[in-house]
Amino acid sequence: MYGFSKFYSKFYKYPLPLLLLSLWLVAVFLLSDRPAHSQDPVIFTNKEKYQSTLLAKRIMPSTLTENVRKTVLENGLTVLTKEVHTAPVVTVQVWYKVGSRNEEPGMNGIAHQLEHMMFKGTRNHPIQFGRLFSALGSDSNAFTSYDQTAYYGTVERNKLKALLVLEADRMQNSQIEPEQLASEKRVVISELQGYENSPEYRLNRAVMQAVFPNHAYGLPVGGTKADVEKFEVEQVEKYYRNFYSPDNAVLVIVGDFQTANALETIKEEFGKVARQEAGGREQEAGVISLSLSTQHSALSTQHSALPSYCKNREQGGCYKLCIRYQMQINRMSRRWM
């Protein structure tokens, strides 16, 4: 109240100057967003260009795929590289085109089991890969999903070659020993028992079985205890030989590195990995006729090979359920580590 009285007394004492000042401020405020009508056309043109640039940035924002370089080696390995020099680190990912959709009853969970075995060492490095990654200071892990199994790690930029050497080695030389398999089967079964305590996991399994009663998508990604207990070394090795091949993989490198130097190392290490025969791979990757036991089988429908499972709009409610649930698949599947 005191401030208003003080302002009023000054306005009363100097009415005309304050009135002109007020009008000037109002005019500046109202006209500030309008372009100036200058005699110099260059000024207006520059402003117009600036506004166009801002509009273009809003319409076409930078994406994750910007400046990605794709290279395909002679053995079929697809390599995606992107330089990002904001921090002195590099991330390496190896994605294999195999997951639980390449399974059948009796073999359910073998993709996830093989993922565990890939950390058990190779003929060239007969030591736990977790120890090797730790020695490199790498933040490394892996996951299995419906359509892929991925291995990833982040290291300092000067450790990139060492990480590539290890990934190339286990693409072809992983050792699957009976004692190690028995040990890892117990680990996997323990994981499965733990997830049974999750209502979200049980819902995910029930819905997928209901939507895909005649497709491998209806099988749980992690497998079942009954199937995991029966895995033999020969079965896991066969699966490894069929699917862990350079022509069935994608190598991704993102971070602070020089593309030319990295590609030389990749060709040196991964280029000597021989591709596997695709016959068995194609046979196991087809649609599998399943007899899945589920109380939700009333939603049964027919599905063809990936990715047409969500294209059949004639299925009505089942189709809508599939679309909505597909959004949850990747988030749920990342649990299988």
Average pLDDT for all residues: 78
Please summarize the sheet with the most strands.
6 strands, mixed
**CATH topology of the largest domain, which one?**
Cytochrome Bc1 Complex, Chain A, domain 1
Number of helices: 13
Roughly what percent helix? 40-55%
Total tally of structural domains: 2
Write the CATH architecture name of the largest domain: 2-Layer Sandwich
Quick rundown:
The protein is of the alpha+beta class.
Give an overview of the whole structure.
- This protein is an alpha+beta fold and 337 residues long.
- It folds into 2 domains: 2-59, no CATH class; 69-333, Cytochrome Bc1 Complex, Chain A, domain 1.
- It has 13 helices and 6 strands.
- It has a 6-stranded mixed beta sheet, covered by helices on one side.
- Strand 1 and strand 2 form a beta hairpin.
- Helix 4 packs across helix 10, helix 6 (160-172) packs parallel to helix 11 and helix 8 (199-211) packs across helix 13 (317-333).
- It is globular and about 55 Å long.
Keywords:
alpha+beta; Cytochrome Bc1 Complex, Chain A, domain 1; 2 domains; six-stranded mixed sheet; 13 helices; 12% strand; globular
Secondary structure elements and pairings:
Elements: H1 2-13, H2 15-31, H3 41-59, E1 69-72, E2 78-83, E3 89-96, H4 110-117, H5 129-135, E4 139-144, E5 149-156, H6 160-172, H7 178-195, H8 199-211, H9 225-229, H10 233-243, E6 249-255, H11 259-269, H12 279-284, H13 317-333
Parallel strand pairs: 2-6
Antiparallel strand pairs: 1-2, 3-5, 3-6, 4-5
Helix pairs in contact: 1-2, 4-7, 4-10, 6-11, 8-13
